[in-house]
Write a structure and sequence with these properties.
The chain has helices spanning about 5-25, 40-50, 55-85; strands at about 100-110, 115-120, 125-135, 140-145, 150-155, 160-165, 180-185, 190-200, 200-205, 210-220, 225-230, 235-240, 245-250, 255-260, 265-270, 275, 280, 290-300, 305-310. It is of the alpha/beta class. The chain has two domains: about 5-85; about 100-315. The relative contact order is 0.11.
Length: about 325
């Protein structure tokens, strides 16, 4: 048997067995610790270059295939487990909270002369919510590393620019400790907002109905994203770029909405929209609606759902 065929055969067999065991609940050990052993792959591949024995090469190829398959499974299992929001601190797992884990609050003052506000949020992995209002310009309650965020504010000619970013865009995951990163963010409802939201493997729930939003740009990796838009501005532009993600966008049925989508391998479901061409969709009230929403979606291997809701259902 050719070494290449042996490698790919064992790779797919191993992946299949791991998925099957996970589905029937037979994996009782912590898959994330497999990551500690991934450098073994390079050792085995290096050794294979020093031997001409076909049997030895086949054996090393087989072991490499199994290790790579397990490592990839552990990676995706960890990412999707995290995005689904499972409890990392229950009795079935051995994660502990590091000693610098704490809660903290951030805020920046609001003044009536601020008519326009720009909010930059830059974070890594975690759970991030934007909802409710504040008398401050922006406030945030953080659970995670102590002093893990940096807050900056500039005001010029009635426009405030707020930058709120994580100092270290990572979370401890492979040493037996998991530092949960949770951010609850509130914005002032008076200014007109531009939002620039950037994250990694994250669960995001943004209820933007209380705010006047002009431009929203969201860039995520492997994420679970829920965005609820309102109609307090004449026009809202949402540009979303995501990798392997589950995306839900809610728009008010009183608003006209146009979707332009670029997603080669995504599962798209646009309820209440008419298809204009291969990449463009519109609601029937788009031309005459007082408030218009423009959605530009660039998703990789994602599930994208856009739904309309009645304003009477607002919570």
């Amino acid at each position: 048997m050719k070494t290449r065929n042996l490698f790919w055969g064992l790779f797919f067999v191993t992946i299949g067995i791991l998925i099957l065991l996970a589905n029937i609940g037979s994996l009782n050990f912590d898959m994330t610790y497999i990551w500690k052993f991934w450098p073994v792959i390079f050792i085995l591949l290096g050794i294979s270059y020093f031997t001409t024995n076909s049997v030895v090469k086949g054996f090393l190829s087989a072991i490499s295939a199994i290790i790579i398959a397990v490592a990839l499974f552990a990676f995706f299992n960890s990412i999707f487990w995290f995005v689904r929001g499972n409890d990392f601190f229950d009795n079935n797992h051995n994660y502990s909270i590091s000693s610098d884990f704490d809660s903290s609050n951030y805020s920046t003052d609001y003044s009536p002369d601020i008519k326009k506000a720009v909010f930059y949020f830059d974070a890594g992995a975690g759970t991030f919510n934007i909802k409710d209002t504040t008398d401050n310009l922006m406030s945030a309650h953080i659970t995670g590393h102590k002093n893990h965020y940096q807050l900056e504010k500039e005001v010029s000619n009635g426009t405030a620019t707020v930058k709120f970013k994580m100092k270290k865009r990572s979370f401890t995951f492979f040493d037996g400790k998991y530092n949960h990163n949770y951010a609850q963010i509130k914005l002032n409802p008076n200014p007109v907002w531009d939002l620039y939201l950037n994250g990694g493997a994250a669960e995001m729930d943004f209820d933007l109905t209380p705010y006047k939003t002009d431009n929203i740009k969201v860039k995520m990796g492997a994420a679970k994203i829920r965005i609820k838009l309102g109609d307090r501005s004449e026009q809202t532009n949402l540009n979303l770029n995501a990798g392997v993600s589950s995306i839900e966008i809610l728009i008010p049925d009183s608003s006209g909405c146009q979707i332009r989508v670029k997603s080669a391998l995504s599962d798209n479901e646009f309820n209440g929209f008419d298809r204009m061409n291969k990449h463009e969709y519109q609601t029937s009230n788009f031309d005459h609606a007082k408030h218009k929403i423009y959605l530009n979606l660039d998703a990789g291997i994602s599930s994208v759902h856009v739904n309309r809701y009645n304003k009477s259902d607002w919570q």
